[in-house]
Amino acid sequence: MRFARFVHAAGVSFGVVEGDGASGLTVAEISSLPFEKVVFTGQRWALPDVRLLAPIFSSKVIGVGRNYAEHAAEMGNEVPKEPLIFIKPSTSVIGPNDAIRIPSVTQQVEEEAELAVVIGATGARRVDRAGAEKAIFGYTCANDVTARDLQRKDPQWTRAKGFDSFCPLGPWIETELDVSDLEVRCEVGRDPNNMEVRQIGRTKDMVFDIPGLVSYVSHVMTLLPGDVILTGTPAGVSKIEPGDTVSVTVQGIGELRNTVVALD
C-alpha cells in the first residue's frame, strides 16, 4: 500500500493512495495512523486536489554516509569498514513541492538522492537482521541535501546536513516493495519539463544492505515508529542553486520534487 499525509479542505489526514500510473490517482482518508489497522473514513479526493506533506512524523532521521563506493570515490574517501551514520534533525524534513531553502552561510549546496527506510509500529532496539526486516514499515524517496563546503570545513556534519528544509521526503510510503535492486535517480533543472540527469544508481550497489543498516543503527540508538533511515546516495552529486527544481525518483515508489530558493 501507499500511505500519504496530506492537506485537504477540512484539515490534515493520512490516507491510502489508490490507482495506477501518474494520472488518475486518488487518496482515500484513513482514521488511523499508517502503522495501525487501516480504517477508511469514506472520504476520498483526487490527488491533484490535495497537497502532499512529508509522509510521516519522525523523532529522528538517521543518515548513512558513503554507502555507494562510487560516491565515496568522487568525494575522495575510502569505503567505510562499518556504516558511517549521522543525524538530521526532524526540523530539516519537508514534503513534496516544498522549497529547499539555501542559507547565505554556504556557497556549495548539493543534492543527494536516496532510498529512505521508514520504521514501523514495533520500533527496533538491538535487533538482528531478521528483526530489522520485521521492523521496516516501508520506503520513500529522500534528498539528503548537504552544504558541501561546510561538511568539509566542520569536524562533524551536523551543520552541513541539518539546516531547515535539508531533508525532503515523499511523496508517500510504499509498504510492498523488493528493494534489493531499484534505480535511484536525480534530475535537476531550471525548466521542470527539461531536466538534466545528475545521478543514477541501483540499490544493489550499496556497500551495506538495508537489513544490515537497520540492525546496526538499532544497536546504537532505539528506533521509534516513524523514524527514517537514509540509505546513502549514488555518485553524481552536484551543486543546486536558487531557481532549480530537484527531482528524486526511486523505482517502484514515485517522484519527489522540490524547488530551490535562497533563504536570505
Automatic annotation (TrEMBL):
- Show which residues constitute the signal peptide: none
- Please list the GO biological process terms of this entry: carboxylic acid metabolic process
Q: Which residues form the Fumarylacetoacetase-like C-terminal domain?
A: 60-261
Gene3D superfamilies in the record: FAH, Fumarylacetoacetase-like, C-terminal domain
One example GO MF annotation: acetylpyruvate hydrolase activity
Tagged with keyword Metal-binding? yes
Per UniProt, residues of the Rv2993c-like N-terminal domain are 1-55
Query: Which named protein is this?
Result: 2-keto-4-pentenoate hydratase/2-oxohepta-3-ene-1,7-dioic acid hydratase (Catechol pathway)
> What is the originating organism of this protein?
Actinoplanes regularis
